[in-house]
Amino acid sequence: MLDRLVAPIRHFFLEGKTLDVPPLDYTVPPSFASHLPWIDVNSKGLVQLEDGRSWGLFFDVAPMVTEDKTQEQLHRIVRSVANTLGIFVDEDSPWVVQFFARDVDALQDMHERLLSQAKVDDAFTRAVFEEDRRHFELISRPQGIFSVNNRPWRARERQVRLAIYRWLPESASEPEQQANLKALKRFRRRLLAPSSFQDLGITLTPSNGESIHDWLSPFFNPSGVPGETHRYRDTRSPIDKDFSERLLRSSVRSDAEHGLWWFDGAHPVATRVMELDTWENDQFLAGAVFGDVLSDEDLEKSEKRPQHVLFDELPPGTMMAMTLVAQSKAQARERLGTVRGGAVGDEPELESIRQQCDDFNTLVENHPLWRGQIAFYVQGKSVAEVNDRTESLRATFDGRNLSLRFIKNSDQVAPLDSFLRWLPMNYNPAYDEKLWYCGWVWLEDMLSLSPLFGRARGTGSDLFHYFNRGGELMGFDPLRDHLSNAHLSLFGPSGSGKSATLVGMLLRALAMHRPRLFIIDAGNSFGLMGEFCKRHGLSVNHIKITGQSRGLMAPFADAKHLLGQALPQVTDDEALKAEHLNDDDHHDDEARDILGELEIMARLMITGGEKRELDDYRRADSSMVREAIKAAAENADAHQVQVRPTHVKDALLSFSQDEQRPQARRTRAGLMAESMAFFCEGLEGQIFDQDAEHWPEADVTIIDLGIYAKNGYEAQMATAYISLINRINSIAERDQHSGRDIIALTDEGHLVATNELLAPYAVKIVKMWRKLRAWFWMATQDVADYPAHARKMLNNNEWWVMLNMSEDELSNLSEFKHLNDTELTLLRSMRSEKNKYKEGVVTGMNNTFMQRFAVVPPALYLALGETDGEAKERRKILMDEHGMSDELDATLLKAREIEAYRRQHEEEV
């Protein structure tokens, strides 16, 4: 342009001389998109290819979980998949099956995804999800926020796709084209049938255009384009069906000298393809590249599974492409015959070839021999970086003793073509008659190396976000994923991150589903969380049992429901024993056993929960106590007051003076009345024997058991706990049609489970909560503190979360939950590193779901959950340094300190 402006001036001074103006260049560089095969991708995964005749299928793949599998199990799965893929054998026109895997940064859109699912979009929800956004942004960096075994740990998404297609010849008639399309749809139905992949633990979902765009657009636009996004758009008209064109956001340049394709954008990124040459292994571990696997021999020796799988260690941006061409047994044998026929001579090498061909002929009967190739796409910002990453990839495979040998860069023929060849649905077997690109391979070996194997990813829900060891999101949602109930038990010994994990679970639950939350605590562990909720607009009611408390409990408030009802009696002394109190209860019972619940309450007050007293409680005592409760309800109703322990005590006292009763019964009634008087006088009278104060309507209610959490107050604490559960139950019954869940969390749950009567009571009342959308959550540090009679209370909970438990703790856990060897092995595999991560295992969905996860919480969750003395001291220092009067402000400042410390992690990637 500058030359054209300067030329007239030069002409003025140089008249008569020839002007030197470069000609305008109207040539257009060749279209890169013309080398891509996709015209359109519909909502069911069908792909129209560029010749207008051929079709393919795309599937999103959720790989099977390998953390809890043996090689024997995995090889059975490999054989089953190989049998399923046999449907694609067609000698006239071969079908092609491809697997692709690539790690991408996928958390940048998580903030919007969470907001779109939130039940309430308000200041609190946005405050919680903003902390999550900051956290996701931080942990998605290439260097992550910490290292594990000298390797950076970072969040990522492993995208796995399956492509199935075949190219029809130009001579294909219209009926042949229609038959081909019908066959593809039939294959889709077959692959989606549960017996094909789902029953093996592999989930196939037909890809839509957006899914494929979100996968391929970052690959073809690796550095992005300033001012643009990778967002997908639907076709706008019938002439807008060029999916390939819509993928490309920047220009593409070929570099024949270095065998690279350069993708321009914010900055140029080069991509090279590396092709498999050969391998020396006789057999591979199933899941050798993508699975958390060991040989069965190593598992028997109790060797630990690897912290990292091979694909984790490949250079960032690397994509694996595995291409398989279906071949029949006849085609395989024909090829073997050709090879054997060419091995003519007496040399040992030729004799060996003939023998191998004979052996392979036998193997082909049960082990498919197909054609295939594995290629890796490696990206870098410069030629030097691509070369370095190429060598890194070779070294990674060599270091895992897989003996895979890749073609040297200098030996590649037409590397630019190779890049195009292994793209999805681009390889055409008709152009490879001499087998230059896809050689003969054992299908089962290739499947063992495929991305059908992986790690746990949870249920796919977004309520609780944890990670697997590869940094992929692992999520589950007890409130929506449950099959029987959303009751939950959490076990986390000291140092396991229990408090931070609970705080994170509760904040996420409130932000996502906005349940009404009740927390029964024994030490104000959730006080800061409550203050955070209050600051961001939630209503919070904080209750603490102290010497000044009045009217906190209403143990017999539900007795009013007994008016006008007959009194069922217990007919067997054996049924009164604590371990048998729920023998006749069923999950599908429609009505509460209110009288039975209240009798347990009265029995607790009478006996104090002491074993000797409980053993003395007989069927006749039960009958009299039930009669007293009914009389108390009638008396209170007559005086229009709430039923209180005093009314039950007075009824028993009147029985002791009733001359119509035998003397032994009168004496026993007097003793029981005296025992109940303890809860009608003094501090206990203030708390239990007053009309219950009204609880304000609140999103979050935190009840601190205070003095009753100390030793010597076991009977009072159990009574208080039952009263609290009763009160929560009344709210659940009142609001059962509101559509709002209730979560009732008991922290340090073993403290309230020590009483023999409490656990049966909890089971009796909580069994109805499923119908009320109320969920009973219990957390504790040490499962060993749970007595045997608590077994039914724990097993009533569908969801169990176990954090980094020691061998002793696992032994104690086995007393309450049946665990097979595989499950115990998975539990024993949990690891942790201080200030980095804690691992846990979750089980749910009626024991059909059990997966390991790593807890790497946002800094806010950590700061709000810190309850140790060191953390309290640090908050006090921050308050003094910054002149703060509010401990929450110091906690938020501590969260920023944690975040800053994590941000300083800058190790070389």
From TrEMBL:
Pfam families: TraC_F_IV (PF11130). PANTHER family: SLR6007 PROTEIN (PTHR30121:SF6), UNCHARACTERIZED PROTEIN YJGR-RELATED (PTHR30121). It comes from the Bacteria. The lineage of its organism: Bacteria, Pseudomonadati, Pseudomonadota, Gammaproteobacteria, Vibrionales. This is Putative conjugal transfer ATPase.
